[in-house]
Amino acid sequence: MLIIILTLTCFEQTGQILGREQQSVISLILQPQVDSEPLCQASDNIEAIAILNYNGKKTETKFIFKKDIDNSILFDLSADISTFTEIFKTNVISYQINLAGSLQVKGPIQTINLVRLNTSACWENLKLVYSRSFGQEFIQMTGMPLLCEITNPIITFRFASNNQQKQIRIMGSSDGNEYYSSTGIYDYSQITFYKQELSTLITDEDKQSMKDFFTEFETNRDLRVSFVFITDAYQIRAQIDIIESSNTKCLLNLNPDVFIASRYVDIGLDNNKYSTDPDCVSMPVTFRQHAIARTNMGVFHAAILKQTKDDFNARGGVDMSFDHPIPSFHEVTTADLFYYLTSYDLNGNILLETSYQGPLALSCIDYFATIVSQIKGGCVIINFYNTEQCLSRKVQELDLIFTSQINGFTSRTTFFSFHLQIVPSPNILQYCSVKTTGIIYGNDATQKTYYDRIIAYANIIRKQQPIYVALSGKQEFFNWYGCNLDIGSNIIFQIVGISIGIAILIGILIFRQSRQLFQ
């Protein structure tokens, strides 16, 4: 019997240990031997002791032995980090398993793996929330804690400004138990908010650094920031990619429609409702808008737009042109909008900066031309990108709106608005409709009859005054400006007879060859 005990083996010679440095725990993984000794099988589901031998020392723990599945035995050394560290500096480690009835099973460790600190596992849904409102400025890291062991950290917020690394010591707040406070008891698993207000910073240097952050972020919305946690044992860096305003509801409540084409992003909003909502802004004087499109083809910034309150209210949203058109736009398959709207008072202080993040609807229009005809109504000559994403769209319900804007967009006047049904096709096709709508961009033209409006609009085209044409629907928004028009023959008067009357055909050709211009 003694010989059996000495040579008893219950496991394959594949013993391995896996250490997790962040939690200071070790897993001893043993694979049961096929057709193991009866004594091994008799110990199934019975408590056993596992021992790790290293440098003439040992550490042990209890576990329940399983004869048919891998045994993963956990050694929790979080209270003895020095032992954890020493084990992984040892070249030779062996194990011993004490089964029921004083049976001993010994073997070597064949594989040793150490998982270093993985800060990506410390929080989920990580983002930086901020407020730039005058007198209420703050930054706040928000995230749900996961698996890390962080004890009594010193926390700093870090970013780069003017090619210099800057940091702010986070002192925390007293807003509640879920908020970090440097003067309170730190419990990593319970804290989801790391907030720092400008007004409660202690040093002038930190106060200036927060102001520098806001200045830098206004210029560079792609700014990379991080929160760094320094403990006695190690340092954890929480890299943050999402930065959003603490106020998002003021834009979300307007249910914005957002579209992207190769030249611009279009954001449909009720501007007047926004600027007069006392829960959002009070007595705004000027506005600043910035939009970024993050796509599978890269990141594209729209030109920053600054407006007075009157100019802002005159629009039902905003079109913001990209610094450069997106090349090979038909290859864009996904796009997300990051939009920042900042309002200022008479003294130039920020009343509110609100942000919006969400998916952009992709324009599928490749070629585009329009015609206004007394007989056929509003027509488009159009084709769509030859992609599955575009051609799989069903019948498009679209509105075609013709306007002028002789003195800029605040003078925008609608002359015609037609409703069309268009079937996406890679072929250039013409669609016409005499069905009018009540859609008005800006002001309604003063001319009462269709004929008088045709005459007036033709005069605007002939004088090369600015016009604006939009094709709009739930899945599509496409526009073009008068300054980019290629106007051909505009007016054809053809007198057929007194009984027939006057037939007038106005052809207004807005022709875009996107492949040549933008690709």
Brief account:
The chain has 519 residues and is mostly beta strands. Helices cover 13% and strands 43% of the residues.
Shape assignment? elongated
Number-wise, the strands total: 36
Specify the biggest β-sheet: 6 strands, antiparallel
Q: By helix and strand content, what is the structural category?
A: mainly beta
* Tally of alpha and pi helices: 10
Share of residues in helices: 10-25%
Residue-averaged pLDDT, rounded?
A: 86
Poorly predicted regions: 1-6, 482-519
Radius of gyration over C-alpha positions, nearest whole angstrom: 34 Å
Q: Give the N-terminus to C-terminus distance in angstroms.
A: 84 Å
Beta fraction of the residues? 35-45%
Could you say how many structural domains there are in total? 4
Describe the structure.
With 519 residues, the protein is mainly beta. The chain has 4 domains: 2-115, Immunoglobulins (Immunoglobulin-like, Sandwich), CATH 2.60.40.10; 119-244, Immunoglobulin-like (Sandwich), CATH 2.60.40; 248-360, Immunoglobulin-like, CATH 2.60.40; 365-518, no CATH class. The strands form 8 sheets. Strands 26, 27, 30, 34, 35 and 36 form a 6-stranded antiparallel β-sheet that branches. Strands 19, 20, 21, 23 and 24 form a 5-stranded antiparallel β-sheet that branches. A 5-stranded mixed β-sheet has the order 31-29-28-32-33, covered by helices on one side. A hairpin with a 4-residue loop joins strand 32 (467-472) and strand 33. The longest helix has 16 residues, at 204-219. The N and C termini lie far apart (84 Å). The model is unreliable at 1-6 and 482-519 (pLDDT under 50).
